[in-house]
Design a protein that fits this description.
5 helices, 6 domains, 71 strands, seven-stranded antiparallel β-sheet, mainly beta, Immunoglobulin-like
Length: about 1000
Amino acid sequence: MRHFSKLFCFLLAFVLAGSTYAQLSPGDIAFVSFDSDDPDAFSFLALTTIPSGTVIKFTDNGWIATSNSFRANEGIWNVTLTTEITCGTEIQVTAAGPADLMGNSVGSITTSGSLALSSSGDQILAYQGDEAAPSFIAAVNFEGSSWQADATSAATSALPAGLTDGMTAVAVAEVDNAQYSCITESGTKGDLLMAINNAGNWLGSDATKQAPAGCLFNPSDCSSGPGGPGGGDCAEVFISEYIEGSSLNKCIELYNPTSAAISLANYSLSVSFNGGSSTSNISLTGSIPAFGTYVICNPSSGAAFLAKADQTSGSINHNGDDAYTLLKDGNIIDRFGQLGVDPGSQWSGGGVTTQNQTLVRKQSVAKGDPNATDPFDPSVEWDGYGIDESSFLGFHNSVCGPAEPSCLITNISLTDVLGCNNGGSLTQDDDFFAANITIEYQGAPASGNLVITGDILFPFSGELVIPVADLTGSPFTIDGTYSGYARAMATVADGMPVSLTATFSDEPSCTFTNPVAGIALRPCSLPECTPVINELDYNNPGTDDREFVEIYNPCSQPINLADYSVIFVNGSNGQIYGDFALPAVMLAPGDFFVICGNGSTTPNCDYDVSPNSNLIQNGDPDAVALLYGEAIADAVSYGGSTNGYTEGSGDGLSDSPAALRGIGRYVDGVDTDRNNVDFSAQCITPGEPNTNVNQYCGLPGDFMVSNIGCFGFNDAGYDDFNGTFTLTTICGHAYGGQDQVLFVGKQACGYTSSVSARITGVVPSTGYAGISMRESDDPGARKMSIIRYPDGRKIVEYRPWANGYYYQYWLPAYTIYADYVRISRWGDYFFAEVSYDGNYWMTIYQQYMGGMPDCVKAGMVASSYYYGLTTNASFSNFNITGSGTAPRPVDPTTINSDEPISFEVFPNPVVDELSVSIGNAPAEEATITILSLDGREMYRGIHNIDGSTVNLQLSGLQMTAGMYILTVNTGKEILTKRFVKANP
């Protein structure tokens, strides 16, 4: 019996050891994209290494906060990972299962109910465990800009228990499809969680699928598995503030990131001076309250510092090049600086230094750094502030659960009340506006006043005093309901930033200055009729070298543009980054005036300004304004609303980075003072009337656009300014026997037709582009195509029989940089050619395609090997040649010859030796090829044909009896003959 027990224990241990199922924590994954347009899809980023065998459940059942349970009747996807997912990997999940961005399966999926994302708003919740007691790890809501109070419908959900909005969950505005914008791709796990779960960092579309995000994620602190090494996030005391001020103003602050008080009996703080072995240990006493701080200062520090101190020690005497370690039971759990290294006078990095500075641990940091001998860059986990800064001491804001200080003002801002007042004149010097003030604070003192100073014009001589007893809670707004203060912030309407400071008189250290509490309104005295901004292109593909602003005169009289200027405004800080006075041009009624950054790339540009590229910023949000003197005659805010430069709202107004797209009014000049109503995305027409068309921009009318064998979004455009075509598609070539491509082209008739182009680019790495001749739009139609991959490799694809297999021929490696491709048709023979410059062509492959109709579809194609990914391809030098429909040739034909060419093949039939005679040839040498009727190449060689007869030995070619085709390619003409091979 004892032997049986040992064997059972061994087998049990073996089974348990082989199971690597992992329990994930909130924030171990983060959603980065979703598509509610069919087919449903979403993707998440692994922020820890997830072992094979881990099960994650995804549901669109909403969370009911009142009962801590799921709302029923929707679906669950149970995803079982069958391979280890490395930290930093994005995984896309569809009904087919989870896969990496190369399309490789990483697991399996089982379903319960029906998970079907609603295009009118929904949510995706990720969790583990039983549905009755789920452990949530991430969530995304796209019903509105915030989580709902409860799950009252299929499209609503409360924030799941245990998750934090903005850190482990995100709620974006209602949209069909959205993705994280990749604005932050590297940093700590906390940095990435804060960026990804910030709704302002997401982009969406009701028309275009967005999954996956495709960012180049690179977390800097990946753990080897869920939870990571050490004590884990928000589990252990760490250093939260370092003060190295003037004289002996020196302090260290510790932070308790947990929900329970922690005794410091087992903790100590050690300082190592100048990187040497000399250390001083400080024993700590007392305890740190939950989410609270513990401050140790030099006993000779200033009063503002000692007022926050819990303990003093003369050993707190650092000067910028001294390292600290925090120990528990003698083990290092955190550090500041690098042990054993003297940095000179200070550690520094990223603009942050350790000398004459106050450093505060970043809010995203959730645990200490025990690697005390590693290099130390203070900018990685610390924010730097000025010398002798004490306002942050005694509290710490952390993702773990920030404690509130006794008094803290977090913001002061102003908003316009009544708009600009022109002062009763047409001059702009006396224009002013009145505004409300909003103060956000916590822990206000019980007595004294709230004093507001700054850019106040009247009537309080630069200072507004409000008794603390009148405050009704945070946020507190001084407005018309607060008697006596409604006009307190009347100030000059000059368009400049307004600086405000709020201070509690009984606690002077509780103060806050906002240098840009708001932007003053621009002056408002204007002529009766002014020009308007009519069209704007601020987001080009590549180097942004075709950006422009179009001005339009909607008035009945000419306008002198010398009275106006155009400014570009950064929406994040209100700063003007471009200011261009317009020239003395009389703009006629109904006429256009185009301001551009590069006149050589922008059609109809009237005024070329600098810089040539990146003239206009890309939004989120930004604005363009047309000024009359200092007054705003017109303003357009895009990517959101820019304070002071928005008419109505700019939300939802954006310019696609696709070529030939911009935003414009339709009809020209119509201005209802609503940016996101007056403007819409459309094909650009600088200097010409707007079209209100947003697809197939510039594409010639005789071109056909076809999704062959696939469905979903496609687009194509032609830029006649530089002669380039662009194709965009989500087609994926998933089935080998049928085509799934976007086709753009037209009909080519005649047995001497051709299609050629230079393929200038294709992205992403899974996409491809090329040219094609095909008999129809049927996915199984006969065809020949030349395909180019992003790395330049090329293949010939041909299908000689309808609905049959297609064949591939890889072009030689030396053709990688030959981006000019051409398919030439000579009767039933199709020739694949490449060129480095478009002038000298090399025939790489030829194929007999018997039975092809006289008229075929010739054009450009694009697709991908992964359905749903957007492929972008660009072409130049596109050309189709051909005649009208002609009868199919029966006899061998001489092509493109000015004088008769004598071309004979004999004997015919032939047994062993075939003679080829060519007279009056246009070249001395030619490539002679023998093909079987099914297209197999039996022989190829280069021969001298200048008035001579070429004898070809057939006995060694393993040719069976039957009919064959001989071609002679001189480089200028291709000659063909049929002959019969007879048995000996």
